[in-house]
Write a structure and sequence with these properties.
A hairpin with a 5-residue loop joins strand 9 and strand 10. Strands 1, 2, 3, 4, 6, 7, 8, 11 and 13 form a 9-stranded mixed beta sheet that branches. A 3-stranded mixed beta sheet has the order 5-9-10. Helix content is about 40%, strand content about 20%. Helix 5 crosses helix 7 and helix 13 runs antiparallel to helix 14. It has 2 domains: about 150 residues, Periplasmic binding protein-like II (D-Maltodextrin-Binding Protein, domain 2), CATH 3.40.190.10; about 150 residues, 3-Layer(aba) Sandwich (D-Maltodextrin-Binding Protein, domain 2). The termini are far apart. It is of the alpha/beta class and about 375 residues long.
Amino acid sequence: MNNKTILVLVGIFVVAAVVGLTLMGKSGEKAAPTSTAVPTATSTAPGGGAGKEVSLLGSGSTFVKPAMDMWISDFTAKNPGIAIEYTGGGSGKGVKDILNHLVDFAGSDPPLPRNKWEKYKGQILQFPVVLGAVAIVYNIPEIGNTQLNLTGEVIAKIYLGEIVYWDDPAIKELNPGVADKLPHKEIIAVHRSDSSGTTQIFTTFLAKTCKEWEDKVGIGKTVRWPVDKTGRGIGQEGNQGVTQAVKTTPYSIGYVELAYALRYGLPYARLQNPAGKFVAPSPETVSAAFAINNPPSPLDDWSSVAREFVYSSASPDAYPLAGQTFLIVWKKWDDPAKCNAMKAFIEYIGSQGQENLPEGYAPLPEQLKKVVSQAAQLLECGG
């Protein structure tokens, strides 16, 4: 057999082998997959079907956003078949979005006002999910991180435009240790420009401590700020916006959720409570404001109860500008998978979530944890 014949035979054997392997790939069980698509995550939470991801969308309070972001990260890592997005935007936006069925859940620092609750009574659930503090932050280069003592009346007069300078006698009297360092500089008052639950908590505090504020401005997610007419008022969106404005504006003052003050290193004041004590915000002093033995159910009106938490007389150690965020959801759901995912997330918030909080928040007391658990059980998963 010559070399040419050998080469021809080898070629025939190679072709045959290739054809055989190709046929095995088409019919044999061990054939390698040709698709490059990534399989869809499988839900491990109730209601999630294999190969199907359940998505939940929320919006609202920026007061709660650092905690919400942490909860979502932890919960979805444990439940890879559930995706959750929370966009913030302010409590007013959250309430509007949930009532217009644009989101699956909303965060709002104040609960629904009574007139809205009456309109949707029995159809919607609202319940507190976290406690926090509205901190009064400031930027006074001459005193650095010194913690000032302030009263609600002094703060109200700053935002009314009546107290103009940092060395005003009313501020110096409250702070004798740094009185000689307080500068004769105009106070720039930063406030929220969007519809904000933090603003409602803040203005509730001002109204309860200063009759002039109650009469001239009142309480709300949005108000007309008298200081703006003087040219010394600045409006910013979100807790983040107020934080950045104070941090970058010498001689400014503002109000933000405590977590933002801690994250960005802003000094914050001790505030006088109804017992006459000047108290700094902390998990302990915030929790002291929420002593409640018989809280309403998720189906009830919370508006009057929530007002009592601000400038609370529950304890002589209570921080007077304490706040909370309520979660608002519809009671009946058409999609069982989404409903069960929402139920699992609520249950997580009321249990593990209370142990998984960023610095600046306080966990719910046991009585309020029970309200969260009750809300999860009240969801009706139809279909």
